[in-house]
């Protein structure tokens, strides 16, 4: 089974059909759902995803998406990683050194900690 850290952009692109990365994200999500891969996700990514989704499509749809994530977690398809002070310090250094947003730094910190690839749909300009 393939294991990877995913960021908010993967989850959003998978649900927002107008996103240019929708089909690529859906392929990753389908692999995870078929247990061909395991998603590692920082808890902040879940919060960011639900928050953005509620603004895009509404509160009820965001609650449904949270229920889907909970289902995947319960089935062992998604592992949510929680943040502590040590990880915060590491993410701060990543954010400062690479001039990144907080969620990006946290996802990178987790990927580096676990030695796994970080999957993102975000293009760097």
Structure, explained:
The chain is an alpha/beta fold. It has a domain at 2-80. Helix content is 62%, strand content 14%. It contains 6 helices and 4 strands. It has a 4-stranded parallel beta sheet with strand order 3-2-1-4, with helices on both faces. It is globular, with a radius of gyration of 14 Å. The relative contact order is 0.21. The model has no long low-confidence stretch (mean pLDDT 92).
Topology readout:
Blueprint: E1 2-6, H1 8-15, H2 22-33, E2 37-42, H3 43-57, H4 59-74, E3 78-81, H5 85-98, H6 102-114, E4 118-119
Parallel strand pairs: 1-2, 1-4, 2-3
Largest sheet: 4 strands, parallel
Q: How would you state the average pLDDT, rounded?
A: 92
The amount of beta strand, in percent, is 5-15%
Rg over alpha carbons: 14 Å
Unreliable stretches covering 5 or more consecutive residues: none
Secondary structure: number of strands: 4
N→C terminal distance: 32 Å
Counting helices, strands and paired strands, the structural category is alpha/beta
Properties at a glance:
globular, alpha/beta, 125 residues, 62% helix
Short description:
With 125 residues, the protein is of the alpha/beta class. The chain has helices at 8-15, 22-33, 43-57, 59-74, 85-98, 102-114; strands at residues 2-6, 37-42, 78-81, 118-119. The longest helix has 16 residues, at 59-74.
């Amino acid at each position: 089974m393939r294991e990877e850290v995913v960021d908010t952009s993967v989850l959003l692109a998978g649900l927002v059909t107008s996103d240019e990365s929708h089909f690529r994200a859906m392929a990753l999500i389908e692999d995870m759902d078929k247990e061909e891969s395991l998603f590692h996700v920082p808890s902040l990514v879940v919060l960011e995803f639900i928050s953005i989704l509620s603004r895009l499509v509404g509160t009820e749809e965001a609650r449904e998406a949270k229920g889907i994530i909970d289902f995947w977690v319960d089935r062992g398809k998604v592992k949510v990683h929680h943040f502590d002070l040590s990880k915060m310090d590491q993410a701060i250094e990543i954010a400062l050194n690479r001039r990144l947003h907080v969620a990006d730094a946290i996802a990178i910190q987790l990927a580096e900690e676990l030695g796994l690839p970080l999957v993102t749909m975000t293009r760097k300009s």
